[in-house]
Specification:
It holds the Pfam family Cas_Cas7. Helices cover 24% and strands 40% of the residues. The protein is of the alpha+beta class and 293 residues long. The protein has one domain. It starts with 5 loop residues before the first strand and ends with a strand.
Length: 293
């Protein structure tokens, strides 16, 4: 069965952690300082997905080999068969996100059908800066440990928008099962792939709206939700809620274009319709819903 267009809303939060360090800013969390908004690149999100796929036993193209980074050229040369058909059949991340790989003088380019915008926080974010001391000295002549900086967000509720192109899916041979794996990864990857700088992040809501054709695009779902808070400076998911009425109306008005809505919602996230608390199932009761396990 061929893949049609899909649109995605994905929101997770980050508490006393660094969602996406900027190497040009001493690894501080990426920020839009003028608006006090935390930013996370699409590459960071794709990295979570790729790492989860590897955890599940899938081979991928963008990875380390023997714990060492290798060039795209080396990654392909190491294989006996690097035909387009072999690549698309064996590397799920190429089917999902595409890739550009150079083999001698030949450049293979696959445009990925699954793309995400940069994520941004729905709330204003404050940064926490702390000094950290290593127990190891910087050299044999200095017995004292080195001192560095540790930058984290106090709290950030980060929203991503994504699109699956049905036409591009044909080119990369994206499978419906690949999208089920994407759903699974976006539910489980972040909490299962924690590091010291990433612990404290949890998925809160995900919805993938599958359309009936390869033409429909309704727009960035983030434009149709509104964060409501109980304080000017939130520190926990319990201090905010999401007003969903505009998104519900958008999807209901276009329900004839929608085949399925795949979703999960964390029970701690409060959803509202015109200020009244509702469940996801109540909010989108007019649509065909399929819960992601």
């Amino acid at each position: 069965m061929s893949v049609n267009n899909n649109e995605i809303l994905y929101i997770y939060d980050a508490k006393l952690t660094n969602p996406n360090g900027d190497p040009d800013e001493e690894n501080r969390p990426r920020m839009d300082y003028e608006r006090e908004i935390n930013l996370v690149s699409d590459l960071r999100l794709k990295r979570y997905i790729r790492d989860y796929l590897m955890l599940k036993g899938y081979d991928i193209f963008v990875r380390l080999v023997d714990d060492k980074p290798v060039t795209a050229d080396k990654r392909v040369k190491d294989l006996e068969d690097s035909s387009n058909e072999w690549i698309l059949e064996n590397w799920i991340d190429v089917r999902m996100f595409g890739a550009t790989m150079t083999v001698q003088k030949d450049t293979k380019t696959f445009i990925g059908p699954i793309q995400f915008n940069w994520g941004y926080s729905l709330n204003k974010v404050e940064l926490l800066e702390a000094s950290i001391t290593s127990h190891f000295s910087s050299s044999e002549t200095f017995a004292q440990g080195t001192i560095g900086k540790d930058f984290r967000v106090k709290y950030s509720l980060i929203a991503f928008s994504g699109v699956v192109s049905g036409h591009r899916a044909e080119k990369t041979k994206l499978k419906e099962d690949d999208l089920y794996l994407l759903d699974e990864a976006l539910k489980h990857a972040i909490p299962n792939l924690v590091t010291r700088s990433k612990i404290g992040q949890y998925p809160r809501i995900y919805m993938r709206v599958e359309y009936v054709d390869k033409e429909t695009i309704l727009g960035d779902f983030r434009d149709y939700i509104e964060l409501k808070t109980t304080t000017d400076s939130i520190r926990d998911i319990n201090e905010c809620s999401l007003e969903m009425v505009k998104l519900v109306n958008l999807l209901n008005e276009n329900k004839n274009k929608i085949k399925n809505v795949y979703y999960f919602v964390d029970e701690r996230l409060e959803l509202n319709i015109n200020g009244e608390k509702v469940t996801f199932e109540e909010a989108f009761k007019e649509l065909p819903l399929k819960k992601v396990d």
